[in-house]
Amino acid sequence: MKKTLFGLIYMSSYKIQLNIVDLKDLTVIEQLDSPSFLQADSKSQVFEQDMDKICDAIEGFKEKLAEYQIKDFKFYGNEQLIDEMSASFIADQIKVRTGWKIEWLNGGQIVYAKVLSGMKSQAEVNDDGKDHATYLLSLGSAMINLSLFKNNKFESSWSLALGPREIQEINEITNETPNDPIYVINDYLGAKIGHLARQIKDNSRAAVIIQHADALNNTYLKKENSANQITHEEFQYFYDQLIQMSLNDIMQNYDLEPAVAEHVIPNAISIKQFLSLLNIGTIYITDMSVVTGLLMLEKRGKDTDIMMTSAQNMARRYLVDLHHANAVRKFALHIFDRLRKVHLLPKSARELLGWAATVDDIGSFVNQARRYEQSADFIEANELIGMSDRENEIVSEICRYQTIDDGDGSAPNIGGHHYRHLNPDVQLTVAKLSAILRIATALDASHKQKIKKIVISLKKNNELVIRAKTNADITLERWSFNKRVKLFEDVFGIKVVLKQEGMNRQ
Questions:
Q1: pLDDT higher at 156 or 205
Q2: Measuring CA to CA, how many Å separate 319 from each of 314, 359, 365?
Q3: Based on the domain organization, do 228 and 268 belong to the same domain?
Q4: What CATH number is associated with residue 392?
Q5: Taking every annotated instance into account, which residue ranges of this chain make up the domain Ppx/GppA phosphatase C-terminal (predicted)?
Q6: pLDDT tens digits, residue range 71-105?
Q7: The domain spanning residue 11 has which CATH number?
Q8: Which residues, including other chains, have CB under 8 Å from residue 255's CB and lie 6 or more apart?
Q9: How many domains is the chain built from?
Q10: Where in the sequence is the domain holding 363, given as residue range(s)?
Q11: In contact, 434 and 399? CB cutoff 8 Å
Q12: Alpha helices, H only, 284-416
């Protein structure tokens, strides 16, 4: 078999699926699905009641991979609907019973995969050569995501919590009242979407690509295409027919299983609400999915530009001074690069440092006095697009440890109670990157970018000299540097000196 063949297993809240794919052009050679999972009423029940289905499917997948002589495969699972304890238990059960290790994807990673698939969908439908704004509306088991692309580049993303439990609660409400459930769901979604109306401008020239709308795809998507255009009139006809149907009618008419069918009406209402909110001109549908994005990730690796854009969007949302953040990031990355033989961290740590430098001041939006700790809390609660739980934890903790102890003992410190409770595999990385970022932040303490360039040299006497190239008064930067340098000296065992040199000196 060709070496480009690859196996991707993805477990959603609905089923577990194997895709045999040619990575050369991302062609799906064969696809196998498990029977649909039972839809759980609580996080503790998701996947657990379907362990036999999951393990039986995996054994079948093993046979199929062997048939194609494929040894290169990945096994991912959607973690959005389960808690950390359940994820650990389920992963252990799968490992014990099948020998396979699952890699859980958090909400930020799922959104990232959707964005990647949206970019591929956009490339397929953008055949007029024009760079109009394009939205990707992705309907998921736990979230509805809306992403914006301009000039064929990712711009922003918003998420709306809507999953099986919310749908079940709405159904229970409508069962107890004489109200039409369509109106109740409409009101619920309208309230959820309302906050986006203040952030999104309507654009009649914009297009929307609708993703994961199975009933709509089964009605209008041509078998030979992965994406195609539908008219507003076609969608309205589909909608008018759909809302009159029972669950059994939906299953039969659109060839859907119960777990998928129960989401069709809420999803259709969501689409209608978003079309109205965005004042969309052109509608496309696609069968490209999270799996498509994961395959693109496997083929090309991470698109760090998307992840940095996401971090910058978060910074803008909380009114961070981006000129300051960019200066700090530039200094931090330069220090990281010049001290590779000292910190001994992998290249991936450099990216984490850059993201932390971008978002470390978002907490000022709420609490200036304890802004870095507030920043850490924000990042813990709002996963950055594309980051694993471990990466997100490192970035949040780097932010937390930018706090300087002013003598009252209240600031978190490296080696203190909170730090000792971090996962051991992240402690050293957090300490080293926090130390680098502290002195980089000091180099723009005035937020005026007085220092345009730094030159770093490590002397034989184990002294690090940072030469600041500037003709400006950097008294404030010196004062801040002296306060923030101790962590660096403690972590690396190196004495650090800041010297100023005029811009006319080489």
A1: 156
A2: 9, 10, 7
A3: yes
A4: 1.10.3210.10
A5: 308-478
A6: 999 999 999 888 888 899 999 999 999 999 999 99
A7: 3.30.420.40
A8: 218
A9: 3
A10: 302-442
A11: no
A12: 290-300, 304-317, 322-338, 340-343, 347-359, 371-381, 389-400
